[in-house]
Amino acid sequence: MTQFAITYDNALVLIDKEHDHIQLERKLEGMNIISIAQDPNNKDVLYCGTFDRGLWKSIDKGQTWSPIGTRFTYNSPFNKDDIHMTAVTAVTVIDIGNNHSAVFVGTEPSALFISYDQGNSFELLTDFSHITGKDQWFFPPRPHTHHVKWFDTNIKSPNMINLTIEAGGFIQSTDVGQHWTAPQTEDTPIDIHVLKSHPDYPNKLYGVLGDAFLNGGRDTFIESDDYGKSWTTFIEGIEHRYGYGLAINTQNPENIVIATSNSPYNAHNYGDSTFSTIYAINKSQENKWVEVTTGLPSPNGTLVSSITEQDGTFYIANNKGVYYSDDGGVSWTAFDITWPDSLTSQHAHQFITLN
Fold this sequence. Notes:
Elements: E1 2-8, E2 11-18, E3 21-27, E4 33-39, E5 42-50, E6 54-58, E7 66-68, E8 87-97, E9 100-108, E10 112-115, E11 123-126, E12 147-153, E13 161-166, E14 169-173, E15 192-198, E16 201-209, E17 221-224, E18 232-233, E19 242-249, E20 252-261, H1 264-268, E21 277-282, E22 290-292, E23 306-310, E24 313-318, E25 321-325, E26 333-334, E27 348-354
Antiparallel strand pairs: 1-2, 1-27, 2-3, 4-5, 5-6, 6-7, 8-9, 9-10, 10-11, 12-13, 13-14, 15-16, 16-17, 17-18, 19-20, 20-21, 21-22, 23-24, 24-25, 25-26
């Protein structure tokens, strides 16, 4: 059986797939769900970050959920060991040795909290106030603020954590989150929506960006071979330049699939102008991105997709359904499932496979 979790605007979608039988369940309905993570030391434990509903935890692989780490009544005081924000925008769980895990929680405004006791208590790691240029960070729809957007970790480089700020760029720790720096490079990327390292090559980082719609920065897709010390932009073949979804083939670091749109508004807002598409490349065989459509819904009316990968198979989720490709992203097949009407206008934020 393969299991998936997808965060949508107003529901957490759990999918169980065993051969041709697929079951879909919706949890946490009515919440603005942003991020999700699984504990590597206890596969039944999941953490889910919501916007203005704080952090939630499941100990039965998503069947039931309880709020942890923050307040839930208007104007009530925070406890000392709370997460002192209610907008949880990113979460990850890291194996820190001896079968112990640490839960990292990113928020809006940008701050980072950590728990060493499975979410019973949290402490503030940093609000990034020491980072040069923090006063320039902004999230365009809410320009008075910004948030932690994405975490990247790699078991082959266990002390390193990479994260991105929307919109503020690339932040890195080399000591399991105790200290953070913003590596300064020429044309530093600004608006990295997804950042991933290859599991076999932790030095290889890949990112999709919204920089094409901002002043400065880079463009739709960037990569690094030196842990983010330098970046290369590669956009040949990409017509629609707002990058949002990304996955890398774990069996081939040259095979990448991304989701893009022709504008930020059309990517995220459901209406007459909604538009997004998928590009794929195998850089060992091709020298430019190829827009792929076989088996996918029309780009018109499709909100920008979230993408994941497992064992060489790519998966995408959007408001039209869930699709998979076992040929490197060239052609796609829809999951044989009745798609709920409530999801047809909802944005998919994060898509993970559950181990």
